[in-house]
Amino acid sequence: MSGRKSKSNNLIQAECLSQVQGILRERFCHQSPHSNLFGVQVQYKHLTELLKRTAIHGESNSVLIIGPRGSGKTMLINHALRELMEAEEVSENVLQVHLNGLLQINDKIALKEITRQLNLENVVGDKVFGSFAENLSFLLEALKKGDRTSSCPVIFILDEFDLFAHHKNQTLLYNLFDISQSAQTPVAVIGLTCRLDILELLEKRVKSRFSHRQIHLMNSFGFPQYLKIFKEQLSLPAVFPDKIFAEKWNENVQSLSEDRSVREVLQKHFNVSKNLRSLHMLLMLALNHVTPSHPFMTATDLVEANQLCSMDSKANIVHGLSVLEICLIIAMKHLNDIYEEEPFNFQMVYNEFQKFVQRKAHSVYNFEKPVVMKAFEHLQQLELIRPIERTTVNAQREYQLMKLLLDNTQIMNALQKYPNCPTDVRQWATSSLSWL
Amino acid sequence: MAHCPTRLRTRQTYSRVDTPSLDRKLHYQTSKEMNVKITDCSTEVLIQVGQFVLIKGDDDENPYVAKLVELFEDGSAPYPKTHARVQWFIRFCEIPVHKQHLLGRKPDAQEVFWYDNCAYDNNINTETIIDNVQVLALAPDEVIPMDLKNEKTFFVKLSWNEKIFKPLSPELLAQWDKLQEGKRRCQKPVAGKNKSIESPSWTTGEHEVKRIESRHSTSKSRQTPSHPVTPRARKRLELNNLGFPRTRNARMSQQTPSALLDSPGSTKRKMAFSEITSPSKRSRPYGSLTSSPDLKAPEETGKIQPSCAKDDKKASPDCCMSLRLRAPALKTETTDERILSPTKGGWKSSVVPSVILKPVNIKKREAKEPEVQDEATSTPHHVRRQSSLLTLNRIRQQLRFLGRSKSDEEEEEFLPAAEISDSSSEEEEAFTPLRPRRKPSSMSRNLRSSLKSPLRTPSKTPKKTPEPRTPNQATPRIRSRNLAAQEPTNALEEARLRLHVSAVPESLPCREQEFQDIYNFVESKLLDCTGGCMYISGVPGTGKTATVHEVIRRLQQAAQENDLPPFQYIEVNGMKLTEPHQVYVQILQKLTGQKATANHAAELLAKRFCTQGASQETTVLLVDELDLLWTQKQDIMYNLFDWPTHKEAQLVVLTIANTMDLPERIMMNRVSSRLGLTRMSFQPYTHSQLRQILLSRLQHLKAFEGDAIQLVARKVAALSGDARRCLDICRRATEICEFSCQMPSSPGLVTTAHLLEAVDEMFSSSYITAIKNSSVLEQSFLRAILAEFRRSGLEEATFQQVYSQHVALCRMEGLPYPTMSETMAVCSHLGSCRLLLVEPSRNDMLLRVRLNVSQDDVLYALKEE
Known about the structure:
The complex is a heterodimer of chains A (about 425) and B (about 850). With about 425 residues, chain A is α/β, with parallel strands linked by helices. Chain A is built from 21 helices and 9 strands.
C-alpha cells in the first residue's frame, strides 16, 4: 500500500521535475525578455526613454550599449523593445531592423537584410532585387524621403557593432548615423558591443555623426547581490502548478544559499567571472544531477558542477596519455629547464629519453625510435606541443623545432593524479638529476 | 515607326497670304497670317497671329504647342525667312522628370501648361509650324470635356514657370474667348488646289529649302506628317496614295548616300560664306570638318557657346545641330541623344517679348563678351536656318512620341485594328528597305551614341523624356506612421528638438564669410555661364555641407525670383557610394533620370559635358567626401575636375573633404592642377562661435543657464570644435535635467551640473570603471601583468609568464589555485573588452599579451578599492 503510494508520489514528482527542468533550462539558455534585469535600472530607463522619443516624437538618435560579454546587453535591449511595443501608441508605429555583425559580414549583405526587414518595395517574398549599388541608393532614397512627423520611425539594432566598423569605408555606419543626424526618416541606431575602444574604431566622419551616447553595462554588483541573483535564478515562479512542490523547492534553494560550501563555490565562481552566463552554466550543470530519485539540488551537486567548470582541460588530456608519452613530456620539461625555454626537436627529446631508459632500463621498455616518433606525433596532434612557426618546410621531422604547451606546474599536478605511474618516472619528473 | 513611310510623303509648303507690313523697330516685316499647305493631305491650313499651332520638335509624336504672337520676315537679303514669335505651351512630358511630381495629380493626355519662362527662345521659323490646333482654357478644377477629346484640341489649366504650377491669370483667360472665334475659320479644305503663293523673296531661298527637305528626308527619313494621325488614319492615307509612296521610298533609299555626301558639301559652301562675315568663328569648323567629328564637336561648340546666353540663343544649338548633322555623314560617329534634346526646358526661349528682352541682352553682351555680338549678328540668316533645323528635329521627336502614345491608346480601345495596322506596317517595312537606312539616319540626326542603342527599347521609347517608371518599378519609401508624431510639450522638449543636429536653422551663424565666398563663387559662375571647381576642407562638424546647402538654397531662391539664371543642382556623397565609379551613375541619374552602368554613365556624362552646348542651364555639382572617390588611376577625380574646364559644360563643381592638403597628398599633378586653387578651409569653431550657435538655436527659449552654455562651448572647443558634439551634449543634458527633476511638468533650467554629467558620460574613458567592476581574478591577472612587465622591463609578455605571476599572486592573496583554463578564460575576457591586446588564442600559452590601457590607469583603478 505504502509502496504504491510512494510510487504515485514518485510519478507526480517526476512530472514536477520535468517541468522544473523545463522552466529553469529556458531561463538559463534563452535571453528571454521575461526574466528580470539586475542592477541596470538606470541604463534601462535611459534606453527606454530614448526609444520612446524616437517612436513618439520622431527624434533620431544613436546610442551604443557597451559591456563585457554576458553582461546583459541583448537582454537590456530586448526588455526595452518589449516595453516599447507594449505601449499602444507605439506598437503600430515602429519598424525594427535587427542586424548582427557575425551574420551580416559585409555591407552588401547588411543592406539586403535591412531592405528585407523593412519590406521595401523591391522585396519580393524573401528576395531582394538589384545590385549592391542599387540597393544602397534605393534604401537611402527611401529613408531620405521620410520626415520627422509623417514617416514611421525605424529602430536599427546592430549586434556585434564592432564588426560593422570593419566594413569597407564604414559605408553602412556612415549612412545610418548620417540619417540619424539629418532631417530624414527618424531612426534610432543602437549598437551593442563588448569593446571598450569602440569609438576609436570609427572613422572620424562616422564618429562625428555618432551622437556619443554610450550606455555602459559593467556587472557592477557585489557578492551579496550575486547570491540574490543565484536564488532568484533557481527559484520557481509563483505560477508553478504544483504549489507544494514549488514551496519545497524554493525552501531548498533558500537553504542552499545559506549553506557554507555553496557560498564558497559561488564565491569562487564569482571571483573568476561576474557574468551571469557563467552562473547559468554552473546552475545548468548542477540541475543535470536532479532526478526523481534525487529531487532536490544539494551542495555537493554545486561543488561537482564547479569542479567541472574550473577543470583544467590540458591536465585532463595528460591523464589519458600513455607512459611513453608522459616520459616524452617529462623529457621536454627537462629540456626546457636546461635550455631555458628554447625550442627543442625530436632528436633532443629522444636522446633525453634514451638516457633515462638506459639508467632505469627495468622500469620502462626501451621503445624503438619509430615508436617514440609516433608517440611524439601524437602529442603534436593533441596540441600539447606545437612546431614554432619559422621552421623551414623541408626540415626533417626529427629536427623540426617544437615548443611545449604545458606549464611545469601543470605537468607535476597531472603526474600526481596519473594512475599507475611508475615511481621511477615520477622521480625522474621531479628532478632530471635523480640518477646521480 | 510604322508610320514613317507616310511621313516621308508629306510635304509642306509655306506661303504668306497677306501683304507684309514693315516693322521699323525690328526691321522685320510683320504679317498677320500665312498658309501652311501639306501636299499629301490636301488640306491647307491658314495660320493667323493669335492662333495656336503645332511646331515641330525633336519628338515627332509630341510636337510643341504654342500660340502665335507675331509673324514677321527678317530683312536678310539673300534668304529672307518668315519667323514667328510664339508663346509656348508645355506638355507634361516635357517638364523635367524630377519636377513632374509638383503637379500633384495625373495630367490628362491632352493637357498642356502655359509656359511662363522668359529664358526660352520664343522666336521660331515658320517652316517649323505644322498645323494649327485648338487650345481651350479651363479652370483648374474643371473636368476636361469629353466631346472635345480629339488630338487637335488641348486644354490649359495651369501655367508652369519651371518651378511651380500656377493657375492661369484672369487676363489670360479673357484673351482666350476672343481667340476661340478666330479659330473656327482658319482651316479650309483646298483639295487638289496646288496653291503656292510664293513671295519673290521666297524663291530666292528656295534651293535652300529644298536642301533642308532633302536632308531631312534622307538623314532623318521621317518627315513629319501635317498633323498627328492615328496609325489607322495613316494606313488609310497610304492606301489612297498607292504606288507613289513605294516608288518614292525606293528612290529615297538609293538617294541616301549621295544626299549624305552632298550635305557636307553644301554646308561647306555655307561655311565659306559665313567665313567672310565672321572668320574667327567659322574658320575652325571648316578646317576641322575633315577631322574626326568627336574631336571637332567640343571645339566648335565651345566656340559658339558664349552666344547661348544671349538673345540670339538659337545660334549655338543650331550650329551644333548642323555640325552634328554633318558629322555622321563623314563618319558614323554617334552621341547621346539626350545631349541634343535635353529634358530640361533650357532650349526653349523667353516668353517675354524680345523687344523687352533685347536691350537687357545687349547690355549684358556688351558687358561680357563684345565679340559675341557681331558673331551672332553677322550670321543671322544662318542662325535662323539652323534654328529651323533644330525645331524641325524637336517636332519630329515630339510627333513620334505623340504617335506612340496615341497608338497605345488605340491598342487599348481597338485592339484588332491596331494589330492590323501594326502588321501592315511591318509588311511595309519588309517591303521597303527601311531598316538599314533608318539606323544611320537616326544616328546622324542626333549623333546618337551607338552605346545608346542597347538602351533603346524595341518600341522606340522616346528618349527625350526619361522613360516613365514602369509599374513594376518599386518606389523607395518607408511606410508612414499611423499616429502623428507628438509635438514637444515643454521647454526642454522644444529645446531638444531645436538642438538636434538635423534641425535646419534659419541662418548659419559664424560662417558668414565662408557663406559669402561660396555664394559669390557660384553666383559669378552662374552669371557668366561658365564652370569652375572649388575645394572646401575642414574637420568634421564644422558646417561645410550645411553651408553649401545654405548657399544652394539661397541661389535657388534667387533663381526663382529671376535674379539668376536657373541652374540644376546635383549632390553626390562619396560615402553613399558602394564603389567610386558609381558616382557617374548617380550623377547621370540625378541629371537625366537615366540608368546606366558606371562605364556607360561616364561616357554619357563626358559627352554631355564635353561635346555639346544645347544645355543652357548651369549644373552645380556638390561632391561630398571627395577623398573616397580616390582610385588608383584617379580617373574619377580627373573627370570631375576636367569637365568644368570645358566651356560648354557649364558645370560648377564644389568638392568637400576633411583634409586641407588632400589635393597635394593624394592627387596627381594633372588632377590637382585642374582642381585649381579656389580653396576654402573651414576652421574648427571657437568657443565663442559655438556659444553663438547654441544661442541662435535656443532663441527665446529659456532652457539653459548662461553659464552652462558657456561651459559646453568651451569644453567642445577645447576638444574638437565639432558643432555636432556641442549640440549632442546639450541635448543629452536636457535629458539628464528632465530625468533628475521630479516634476516633469516644470523641469527647470539645465544647469552646469547637468552639462558636466553629460560631458562626463560622453567623453570619460570607461576603462577605469571597467577595471573596477571586473572580477577578482581579472583584477589579479592585470596585477600579474603589471608585475611581469616590471620584472622583464618590457611592455609585452607571453601568457605563460603572466600565468606564473598570476599563480604566485593568488597564493599570496589566499585565493584558490587558478587553473590554466580558468586563467585563459579570464585573459580572453579581458581581451574581448580590449583592456588587453592579445594574440589569437591558437598560440595558447605562448600568446603575447599587452595592455591597452596605461599602466598608471590600471594601478589607479586597482588601488581604489
